[in-house]
Amino acid sequence: MRRGSAHLGNRRARGAAGPRVRDGALEVAVLVLTSDAPVRRLNARYRGKDKPTDVLSFPGPASGRFAPAKKSRRRIHSGDCERQEGLGDIVISLDTAARNAPRFGRTLAQELDILALHGFLHVLGYDHETDDGTMDRLEGRLRKRLLAPRPRAGSGDGR
């Protein structure tokens, strides 16, 4: 497992997150896995689904929703990964992302961006399985921004 973190340091990221993020210093721990096996174990343990998946989210204390609403939202045990204060952990399977990217017509980098966004929305408290479509609409708007072509260096865009 490789561990990295995403810092909500810029105004655009905080603005996209909406009112659920008040302090730009909150940390989201991102666990990037090199195979499906660890993700499958976590998915079986916390969601009761014995199969790999692309992304799993585990809200942390700062998310305001760490108290489990159901059995599948239990705290990750220290043997699974190191906990730290913050919004939560996002676990991404590189294997599944690499398989899915071509199916959706995306590069692996784009797929990883989308999975990180999806996980991030979950640790903020959004849930597409139980809400009225709020998460799906927000994710759709943010995906358009995320996947928009970026200007090349020297293109005169001034960014």
Helix content bin: 25-40%
- Going by CATH, the architecture would be 3-Layer(aba) Sandwich
Q: Name the quaternary structure.
A: single chain
Question: What coarse outline follows from CA principal-axis ratios?
Answer: globular
Taking pLDDT < 50 over at least 5 consecutive residues as the criterion, the unreliable ranges are 1-22, 66-84
CATH superfamily: Metalloproteases ("zincins"), catalytic domain
Q: How many helices?
A: 5
Give the number of domains: 1
Radius of gyration (Å)? 16 Å
Average predicted confidence as pLDDT = 73
Largest sheet: 4 strands, mixed
Kindly identify the CATH topology. Collagenase (Catalytic Domain)
Largest beta sheet: strand ordering: 1-2-4-3
- What is the CATH class name? Alpha Beta
Distance between the termini: 34 Å
Structural class by secondary-structure content: alpha+beta
Percent strand equals 15-25%
Order of helices and strands: EHEHEEHHH
Number of strands: 4
Report on the structure:
By secondary structure, the chain is α+β, with helices and mostly antiparallel strands. It has one domain: Metalloproteases ("zincins"), catalytic domain (Collagenase (Catalytic Domain)), CATH 3.40.390.30. It is 37% helix and 15% strand. The chain contains 5 helices and 4 strands, in the order βαβαββααα. It has helices spanning 11-17, 36-47, 94-103, 108-123, 134-147, and strands at 2-7, 27-33, 55-59, 88-93. It has a 4-stranded mixed β-sheet, with helices on both faces. Helix 3 packs across helix 4 and helix 4 runs antiparallel to helix 5 (134-147). It starts with a strand and ends in a 12-residue tail after the last helix. Residues 1-22 and 66-84 have low confidence and may be disordered.
